[in-house]
Amino acid sequence: MKTILVTGGAGFIGSHLCEELVNHDEVVICLDNLLTGSGKNIAHLATKKNFYFFQHDVCESFKNRKFNQIDEIYHLASPADPNIHSRFSYMSLPFETMQVNSVGTWNMCELALKHNSKLLFTSTSEVYGDPEISPQNEDYRGSVSTVGPRSVYDESKRFGETIVAAFIREKGLDARITRIFNTYGPRMNVDEGRAVVNFIKQALKREPITIYGDGKQTRSFCYISDQVSGQIAAMEKGNTCGEVFNIGNDDEKSILEFAKVIKRLVNSKSKITFSEPLPTDDPRQRKPDISKACKILGWKPIVNLEEGLMETIKYFREQI
Predict the structure, then answer these.
(1) Residue 263 falls within a domain, yes or no?
(2) Digit-coded pLDDT (tens) for 152-162
């Protein structure tokens, strides 16, 4: 039995990760300041004897948090919604986003050294920016604007990777980095502005399904259970210190195709409309090369898009 700290543990991905670790009989300490996370996501874990929740901002001092031995740290804390119209968006929370991925990441590295813990830092596919190659592999250095509206997230995640890499080289930290590609599933915040959330809500309400741009931009959507198993594999499988892994699904679809699949699965009468220009710096293509994760971690996604969407739609029906 290990003691595992999960930052951002009340968020969408974090709560599923906490649940999986609790089910594996690990002792799980969940930290979240609830800026974008929700206590509802972890309410079902509250009665578990091996689950502990602390409302805390990882950018703040840990002097008043006395932890015993911590064996592993999953650092997920960060706003991640790209939609500028959402109050949960990293563009609506620019300073909090930059701080958690820099100061917060530094604090987690220091805490991991103090406890001689293994650390996993969840970065993002957004470090690749609007890519010039496809699929994107871990060696690709990206095409990212340092001053655009998305840079508060893209560049702070890139700097977070730099911090972790420096701690590995200079201080011997046992750490690895995962780059999360588009992920969906139950517990996504219904008030967020991501494409999955918007399309399902609009289809259920029979409102127009609104697409930015011409809908030809592509994404690769990974179901939450596959994402969580990938994160755990990156932490647990072999000697992965210093490694970077893409964790996502390589089934690439255009946003228009994706909207049509959701409309069909909901059996909705909604019309698909093209309402606004593509947002500034929005990537036109996103497809992970996951061959490294498959080879080293023995991991690959197993849930197909329609199966995952049906579970997600079921959740949103209950919420709406």
Answers:
(1) no
(2) 999 999 999 99
